Every structure is written in structure tokens, then in C-alpha cells.
Amino acid sequence: MDGHDSPPTPKGSLRKFLEQLSGAGKAIGVLTSGGDAQGMNAAVRAVVRMGIYVGAKVYFIYEGYQGMVDGGSNIVEADWESVSSILQVGGTIIGSARCQDFRSREGRLKAACNLVQLGITSLCVIGGDGSLTGAHIFRTEWSGLLEELARDGKISTEQVQKHGHLNVVGMVGSIDNDFCGTDMTIGTDSALHRIIEVVDAIMTTAQSHQRTFVLEVMGRHCGYLALVSALACGADWVFLPESPPEEGWQENMCVKLSENRARKKRLNIIIVAEGAIDTQNKPITSEQIKELVVTQLGYDTRVTILGHVQRGGTPSAFDRILASRMGVEAVVALLEATPETPACVVSLSGNQAVRLPLMECVQMTQEVQKAMDERRFKDAVQLRGRSFENNLNTYKRLAIKLPDSEIPNSNCNVGVVNVGAPAAGMNAAVRAAVRVGISEGHKMFAVYDGFEGFAKGQIKEIGWGDVGGWTGQGGSILGTKRTLPGKYLEDIAAQIRTHSINALLIIGGFEAYLGLLELLAAREKHEEFCVPMVMVPATVSNNVPGSDFSIGADTALNTITDTCDRIKQSASGTKRRVFIIETMGGFCGYLANMGGLAAGADAAYIFEEPFDIRDLQSNVEHLTEKMKTSIQRGLVLRNENCSENYTTDFIYQLYSEEGKGVFDCRKNVLGHMQQGGAPSPFDRNFGTKISARAMQWISSKLRESAGKGKKFLSDDSVCVLGISKRKLLFQPVAELKKETDFEHRIPKEQWWLKLRPLMKILAKYKVSFEVSDASQLEPVQPRGPEEPAAI
């Protein structure tokens, strides 16, 4: 990839380029410690490859801190190929152990001695808060340890001077997501995948027998997995350590379960975190809950304890991308560190990589435990962060229907419609909208089959129970069409009059965005369209202006990643084979680019980064070189519309011809499997939360005008709700017009393009790489007035 891979940097831009960062003469040690988590291998791979890329030496430290203390064959230099084919493997290939020795000063002396002998003065630690605290202690003691080693004659005084400082960067690998300061820890998303797979499977059998299932998930001190899986499967009740049920919960829960049965629901799901407690800090066990349901209600009840299944399996696409980004960022942080730099953690805020002071995060994490021990549960929930709090509030609103007498009637009717191609997670969004709408006192109307159905009057009132069990369903239950409203404006206006619809929620992709623009333009002619309208982005292509993510893209990405894993494995026997895989996305290269990052592709061709025959030639040469190593297979992704003439067939034929005698080629078009399937936990959760938020916006708009009968004429009453960097934002469609490339149906600026160099570096191309937006440490969680976009 020669001249044109990254846009020139604007003059006066303070961003550092990697050229100035050299790792020459540096030695980095990488270890995984504490409980394992899926995605740790992706992090190890990124650290090793990025380290080698900048000219540093990278050492594997096997078996966590134990290997550091034992030394010898436990500390081994890694090369490029030692991390090949580990991206899709769960757990950690360098092993992890709980280490008693390292807790003593003797142990740490041995460890320091082993590191100094190899000149390792930069440590990258992947683990939970215990492992990171250990690293911090080690760093503060370092110079003292070296002096003691020199006095005992174990190392020379030159070594003490040369290696006088230890720099530490941490990454949090933990399935519990129990670390403050980071939105998602490595492994959490994969653990949710395991839980949701099990819940989906259990739901079908529970449905058959009208059973109640009590599911116990991991999380000794943190209820994140329990909470999010309850949100993602619409569980009837959830038990968390941070938010114990109020006194008398036994009664309340049984009433709730029997009400649900009375609403024709054939099954009940109760989710319990293993660390669940009551307000007196006494444990609440799954067996206790089962006994209660059986004795009080006489329901056929079963307990399923998920246990270590949650730690196993292959990492999800989200975890692979997260870990790869964090790994590269960790190496950059180590290269930039000075003796004064405090130990830091690289973590995720919204979708941005940030660095935070390690000890502040650890202290905050310990504060949560302290708050729980002292029964200050409100504080515990708040300390967990705003996203945890939002999840909890959303869950309560969607799970428990207040009696009609307690819901104030707003006398407003709100329509919900799906537009465009189906995307996994649309149904979760509809369910959330309907239930939040009902809880705010509106009448909710479902519009079937997009704008076309709207015009034909396919509109029905939809109730709380009608959307039960929708979160796990793929596709679009309401039905969706790509038709734009332009040619049906008269009819749609008439339907809005007939059903006196006061607001509209549109869930869909680029067509929904275009449709919204058409409805806005039609306000002059038809006053019916002078109502609040908001769009929630849902499309596998992730090409909606105004949002960094759209519902359905994560599910499609996982489909692509799983398929690439299988395809790569099929080559493990035949050797020397290159696969060319075509992904969807229209002109938007998101799926090809991120799929390439998650599957470890050698190249990804996308429309946003023009390429010519020289680039194709250099990719073929790159693969030819690769075939000489022990990694004898290649993977190339191509976005369906990346080039009019360099079609998938053309690239396949070119590679076949140029690779003659070196490698053979196969091609695969993934097609519509990317739109189908059960939604991933991310899409269920994202769809639920963003749609609930959209409904609250509609309610506040309607409250403003209540009783005044005023028309909504301003542009800010027609919005797209999206995630932008770290915030949830409502942006008027009229303002988004200038940010849109209408011909190619993509936003003019796309955040993920800055991850392109990442994929190329990890595939061994020379590129210039822009370091994270802020290489400074940030304070932990400054609480601004804006809404955090943690998902």
C-alpha cells in the first residue's frame, strides 16, 4: 500500500505520527493475569505486532506473574508469527495463573531480576483490578528492588542505571465488566454472547412446557452480565449485587410472575448474578428462588447455572476489535511514557480509546465494593458509572408494567414504523419504544410494511403484551420496505389525520433518513407532518449520517467474522490459499473494514479509500512474501461497491493469475446471511436503549405543546438520534444534509476510517498511523451534563 493510505494531516495539527515514535532499544513484556477472558489473545497479538512494527523487542511472559517470578523458559521473545491464528481463539495462549509468590517482596525481587537480565522495562499487563494493582506496586518498588539486587550482587550497577524505571500500561480483561473508568472490558461482550445463546435455547424449551427458568450468571461482585442479559432477553426479574430487591421482594416477584402468566406468557425467566444479595447483605441463591416459586406458585421450575461456559468460546467481533485497538494504544502509551508517567490503563469511552490513571480506576472500583459492604446501594450503582445506571432504569421501565390507574394519560398517539432493509435488533427497538410509550401514557400504533403500509392504512394499536419476547427475534416483525414516502404524501397525511397521530418514531437505515427529509419538506403542503419525528438508525451497513453505530451492524459483523474464521480454518489443511470475500454495505466500507480487523484480514478494499492496479499488485506481492513464512493462507475482504471495475471476479482472476505456482484462490460472496440471524447482545441492548431514549424525547416534545395545540414547525422537531464519539445526540435532519454524500448514501466523514492503518499494521504493511486523539491521561469520569454513549 504505497503512497495513499492515510489522509495528509492538517497543518498545525498536534497529533503525533508514529514515525516519531521509535521502539528501538526498548523491550516490552506482555502478560495475562487473573481470570481469563475472550479477546485476551487479540490484545496479545496487537501488542506483539505493534511492538515489533515500531522496532521494539516483545517478550511473552507465560503463566502471568508466576512466570515472571520463575523466569527461565517462562520469558520468551515473541516474533510476528508467534501470534498468528490466535485472534479467533478464546482464553489466553500465554497462560494465566493466580500467583501467591508475587504478593511477597521476595517474589517481586525475583521477578525484577528476571526482567532486568533481559532489559525489559516496559510491561503491558492484561487482567483484572488485582493484576493491575500488582503491577502498580511493582512499578513503585522498582528502583528499590534494583538497588537491593545490586547490593546482593545479582545485577550490576550499570544495569541499575540503565533500567532504573519501569513503565506499566494495563488493559482490563475481565468478563464481569467490573472495572470503573472503562465502558467495556475485554471479554464482556463475548460472555454476553454465551449467555444469550443459552437463554435463546432455553426459551424454546420453556415455551413448550410452560416452565420457569432460574438462570445463574457469573459476577461475584458485579451485576453487569446479569443486568444486560436481562435487558437483552426481556427477563421477568433480575437479582444484582449492586441493587438488591426491596423488603418483601418475595411477594412482589410472585405477583409479577403470575401477572405475566395471566397475560398469556408461557414462560418466565429469572436471572441471578452469582453474587446476588438482599438489603441485609445476605446471599440470594438460585435454589432459594426456585423453592420460592415452587412453594408459592406451584410452577414447574428449573435452575441452570452457566458457570465457566461464559468464559469460553471464541471472542465476539466487538471484543477482537476492542482488544486490537487497546493493544496498539498500549504500545504507543509505553513508547510515549517517561519516568514520571504514572501507570495507566487504556480503555474505551464511547467509541474512543482513552488513557486513564490506573490507580484512580482501581480505587474507584474498590469504592463500589465498599459501598456494597456498607449497604450504600444507591452509591454503588452510581459509582458503577452512568451506563450501568441507565441500563438499570431502562430494565425497570420495560420489565414492570404499572397498573393503568397509575399511568397518567397523555391523550397522544405515537406511530412506530420500520423502513428500509431488515436489520437484526429492529424488533428490540420496537419493543422498547412501545413499552416506554405506554409507560408515559401514550397510545402506541404499529405501522406495518414501511411507508407503503402507512399509505394503505396498515396501522394497528399495539399493547404492552404484544411485544413480549421480541428482543431475540431477527428481521423485522412489523415488516419493512425500501419505498420512500414521496409518492404517497397525500395518503400518509390522511392516515395521520384518521388515526390522529401526534408523533412518529422511524426505525431504519438510509431510506428512513431520506424519508424523514421528504416528510420535513412536505410540511408546507401538509400540516399533518408538523409533529415531532425522530429516527433511530438500524441498518447492517452502518451508513446513517449522525450516528457512529446503527442497530444491526454488530450482528452482521459477527456473521462475517464467524464465516471468515470457518473459511480460514478450511485452508489450514490445504495451505497456500487466499480467500476473497465480498461483504455487504452498499458504498459504506464499515463491514469490510471492521470485518477485516476482527478476522485478521490481509487487505480490505473499500470505496472510501480509492485503490488502483498498483495497490492490487502490491497486495499480491505482500501475500507472495507471506506464503514463504509459516502462515500459509490469506484473507482479503472486498466491499460490494468498492469499485465499479475491480469487481470480486476481477480481483479473484487477477490474484489467481499473479499467484500462479505460489498460492491458489477461492472466492465467497456472503450476501443476505449478513442481514439475518438472531440479534447479537450488543444490538439488542443498543436497540433497546436508543429506542427508549427516542421515546423519552418524543414525550418531552409532546409535553411542551400539551394543551397549546401548537404545530411543530422548527427543524429541531425532526431528528436523527445517534451516537457521536462519546455522546448520545439528537441532530436535526436538516443540519445533517450538509454532512451527507447522497449519491453514495454515506456520511462525508466516517470515524472508523482512522482504524484503517490499524488493520494494515497488524497485517504487516508500512503505514503512517495516527495516535489516539489524546495521548494525555484523562481524569476518571468527569460527569458532564451530556449523555454518555456507553452501550
Automatic annotation (TrEMBL):
InterPro entries reported in the protein's UniProt record: 6-Pfructokinase_euk (IPR009161), ATP_PFK (IPR022953), PFK_vert-type (IPR041914), Phosphofructokinase_CS (IPR015912), Phosphofructokinase_dom (IPR000023), PKF_sf (IPR035966)
Native species: Muntiacus reevesi (Reeves' muntjac)
GO biological process: canonical glycolysis; fructose 1,6-bisphosphate metabolic process; fructose 6-phosphate metabolic process
Descriptive protein name: ATP-dependent 6-phosphofructokinase
Chain coiled-coil ranges: none
Residues holding substrate: S174, I175, D176, R211, M218, G219, R220, E274, R302, H308, V309, Q310, R311
Protein localization: Cytoplasm
Pfam families for the chain: PFK
Primary location group: cytoplasm
Classification via CDD domains: Eukaryotic_PFK
Top-level taxonomy: Eukaryota, Metazoa, Chordata, Craniata, Vertebrata
